[in-house]
Amino acid sequence: MQKITCESLIEKACELIENGTVSRVIGWKKGEFDYDLTPAVFANADEIKKNFIYNDFSGANFSKYLIKETRKGEGKVLVFLKPCDTYSFNQLLTEHRFDREKVYAVGIPCEGMADIAKVKAAVGDGILKITSEGDELIVENLYGDVNKVKLADVLAERCVNCKSKKHTAYDELMGEDGEILDNNRFDEVEKLENMTEDERFAFWQNELSRCIRCNACRDVCPACTCEKCVFDNPKSGVENKAIADSFEEKMFHIIRAFHVAGRCTDCGECSRVCPQNIPLHLLNRKFIKDINTFYGEYQAGEVEGSRAPLVNYTEEDIEPNDAVKREE
Amino acid sequence: MQRIGVFVCWCGSNIAGTVDVEKVSEALKNEPGVVFSTNYQYMCSQAGQDIIKDAIAEHKLTGIVVCSCSPRMHEATFRKTAAAAGLNSYMVEIANIREQCSWVHKDMQSGTEKAIILGKAAVAKVNLNAPLTPGESPVTKRALVIGGGIAGIQTALDIAEAGFPVDIVEKKPTIGGKMAQLDKTFPTLDCAACILTPKMVDVAQNDKIRIFSYSEVEEIGGFVGNFTVKIKKKARYVKEDVCTGCGICTEKCPQKKVPNEFNMGMDNRRAVYIPFAQAVPKVATIDPNYCTMLKTGKCGVCAKVCTAGAIDYTQKDEIIEEKYGAIVAATGFNPISMDKFDEFAYNQSKDVITSLEFERLTNAAGPTAGKLLRPSDGKHPHTIVFVQCVGSRCDACAEKGKEYCSKICCMYTAKHAMLTRDKYPDTDVYVFYIDVRTPGKAFDEFYRRAVEEYGVHYIKGMVGKVSPEGDKLMVRASDLLANKQLNIAADLVVLAAAIEPDKSARPLATMLTASMDTNDFFTEAHPKLRPVESPTAGVFLSGTCQGPKDIPETVSQASAAAAKVIGLLAKDKLMGNPCVAQSNELMCNGCSSCERVCPYGAITYADKEFRMPDRTVAIRRVAMVNEAVCQGCGACTVACPSGAMDLKGFATSQIIAEVDAICK
């Protein structure tokens, strides 16, 4: 169960919209089930009271929505940001992707979000209702069973390896701020690095050949905010081509990983939304790890205005040869 | 569709020797867009160029490919040819089938095969070429010279002579630089001051030249023809326009214990000082690190004795902003620190000195009024050991000293040795050397005179150790020619310290976006053919900031730099390079990645209104390229995440087309 309640968020949102601080609220709206929450924009208190929801499945990172939302209409947009969302928020500000003046950001604490795939794996399918109580989820299914599962056991992978409980940006903070964590998020990357080339190739072939090119990872990614994506641009030379084999989509993922290198905030949205459960975040995490090794610790979005060493020119820049030596 | 003509050059037998030119022109005939293909013995000759011109007219060509030598050789030639025939110059592509093909291949078959592939790539590129027109920018007719040594002085005088205004920025209170500190100059032995100070006076009296002494360059913006420079005039606490240079303050100042940098710290000056008698401008300067008034607020003696009322303790640093068309770096050199060379006991004994200190010891205006006396006890030295190459020509792995030859040491050491023997014939003079290098007009004759006429002991070999023992310096050295160890009890040891660029050069290069080598010498645009220009347009190099030089060479280079500056300032407008970056505003995210990697500061941003695909209107931040500043390096095109940045004439699509053509 989350430390901050849905009611308190609704109260806050209504208060800010009614006193005129904001004109719109970006929040989570209930979908067909308790676990498939959808990002939504609320324009008045009635809508908020009726549809706004916040629970253990409120994983969606709203930072990216601010680009489009701040371009619309008058007044400010209220956005609720979990600690990891603030990294994306900062990175987008660094890249001048939205007008900070048009946003009212409320930082909210996060206990980690549940992964419905893990819940289903634990208690089976046919879920009708999920409620939270203490550190447990209570799951009712259509056969009338009531199962309990600990939130800690069904946490999304990105939350197991949560990089930070500390908000890096907000106008107002609800609840208490946490600390930057070191939850061994590079362990999985190291496992891949320790594989032989053939093993690693087989691993990615197995994963990426499942890709159906739905573009969900790109569409949700807060680093993929180009006005015109190269994959939608026939002139770029990398747009959709006839697929020669099921592993062809590796090119899409590798190009995408390069495009977000040094800008990825490791929010894990790509893996969360992938309908094929491909661990896409591992590609990006490898880049983060490499940048740390070659150029010193750097996490995109930790500090607004900071630039990844890859796209920043300074007098103190390390020579490429020395950067390679650092790995050895 | 383009109508492309292909012209394959034989270059005599240079290309035709290993490339079947007939086959190449035949093969390229079938490439997409090619309507005409031929070969000729010398395409660059008048007859060859006429073939190109005629073909452009006859076949209504829209683009041409010349398969010949490196574009560095003749691209400009063929662009002019095309322009003369009415074709846009930038519709010309060169396939380098000489340096990159015929010269590196031995057999006809592989050479021909590769030449065809290179030709295909060039054809693929021309198919995507578009006519380009260079932009124009105006020229500010004023030059900035950074550094007021002999290099800066000569450059400024020559530019002013041609009628253009020049500003000199010098960080010291006076111009003159290192040459002002020297005693005599080789190989003619005229006194440095006698030949330098008239030039300093010329600078002061020239109404085209302004001197910003005790000033530093703070910030440089803009581009060739249009630099904007911020100069910090440091507070000297003396009103420059009021001070008469009478020097009474420098005599009455009670703070007497300030090491005199002009005499290499071998004597003291006052807290208010004029570096030397012929200083330009002849104005006193108060040293804020030592002045009691500035530090504690109690004293004020100089203000009391100054009859002109020039002292102003409240003076503040002043920032001057000025526009320039050209900038000359003349930042000069310094001897390296001797801290890492403990074997010569420089820090242990006052009688181990550097050659520049020796200059001051023999200079009539120096601490000993020109008498050669030991710094420790003021006695006349009877045995002097000169050690050459201290810190020059060091091993790269030695982690001390420099790999390069400092170039001037052989000659000034010969001068020191000769003058010592001339003035004090009772002195034994030893010179230890690795090699004696004396290329230069009348240089070797000079060195031989030192050996043959003045009896200086030249010994090939290095000094291993100098150890102070009593009032002597025990010098242990090896004589490589006689193959024996030497122990010399010397009274004075003089170290020919390597020279290195002034510390201000590196930050200046960063401000200028001019490149430097690993030793912090400025890099020239071409080591042989453009030696006084930096690769950055509008930035020129004068004197030792480009590499070790003696005075005659420095002066020649200074005048050469001036000639280049005059050539630039004489123009009313500059033609830019049209192969510059271009931002596709519809695709630009305004993320600033390009701005961060741009080494020239050519990218700015603007908020613009756009109609979005969903028919709404949005204000978006987009990148804009200043075409006059952009050098076309392409860093932005690879940093841009959305592919909005592209390079005109070298578009990503063109490069990919070339690669595709090669890989087909």
| Number of domains as seen in the coordinates of chain B | 5
Radius of gyration based on Cα positions of chain B = 31 Å
How many distinct helices of chain B? 19
What sort of overall outline of chain B do the alpha carbons produce when their principal axes are compared? globular
Distance between the termini of chain B: 21 Å
Q: Going across the biggest sheet of chain A, name each strand in turn.
A: 2-1-3-4-8
Mean pLDDT of chain B: 94
Low-confidence stretches of chain B: none
CATH classification, class level of the largest domain in chain B? Alpha Beta
Classify the secondary structure makeup of chain B into a structural class: alpha/beta
Strand content of chain B: 15-25%
What's the mean pLDDT score of chain A? 89
SS summary, helix count of chain A: 13
Number of strands of chain A: 8
CATH architecture of the largest domain in chain B, by name, is: 3-Layer(bba) Sandwich
How would you write the strand order of the largest sheet of chain B?
10-7-6-18-29
Oligomer: heterodimer
| Relevant CATH superfamily of the largest domain in chain B | FAD/NAD(P)-binding domain
Termini of chain A, distance in Å? 45 Å
- Secondary structure class of chain A reads alpha/beta
The biggest beta sheet of chain B is recorded as:
5 strands, parallel
Q: Can you walk through the features of this model?
A:
The complex is a heterodimer of chains A (328) and B (664). Chain A has helices at 6-18, 45-51, 65-70, 83-94, 116-123, 157-160, 187-194, 197-208, 216-220, 250-260, 269-273, 281-295, 320-327, and strands at 24-29, 38-42, 77-81, 103-107, 127-133, 136-141, 146-150, 172-173. Helices cover 35% and strands 12% of the residues of chain A. Chain A is an alpha/beta fold. Chain A is built from 13 helices and eight strands. The relative contact order of chain A is 0.12. In chain A, the strands form two sheets. A five-stranded mixed beta sheet of chain A has the order 2-1-3-4-8. Chain A folds into three domains: 1-114 and 162-183, no CATH class; 116-154, no CATH class; 184-328, no CATH class. In chain A, a hairpin with an 8-residue loop joins β1 and β2 (38-42). Chain B is α/β, with parallel strands linked by helices and 664 residues long. Chain B has five domains: 4-126, Rossmann fold (3-Layer(aba) Sandwich), CATH 3.40.50; 143-234 and 317-332 and 502-569, 3-Layer(bba) Sandwich (FAD/NAD(P)-binding domain), CATH 3.50.50.60; 248-305, no CATH class; 334-500, FAD/NAD(P)-binding domain, CATH 3.50.50; 581-648, Alpha-Beta Plaits (2-Layer Sandwich). In chain B, 28% of the residues lie in helices and 25% in strands. Chain B has 19 helices and 34 strands. A five-stranded parallel beta sheet of chain B has the order 10-7-6-18-29, sandwiched between helices. In chain B, α13 links the parallel β21 and β22 (428-433). The radius of gyration of chain B is 31 Å and the shape is globular. Chain B starts with a strand and ends with a helix. Chains A and B meet through loops of A and α17, β33 and α19 of B.
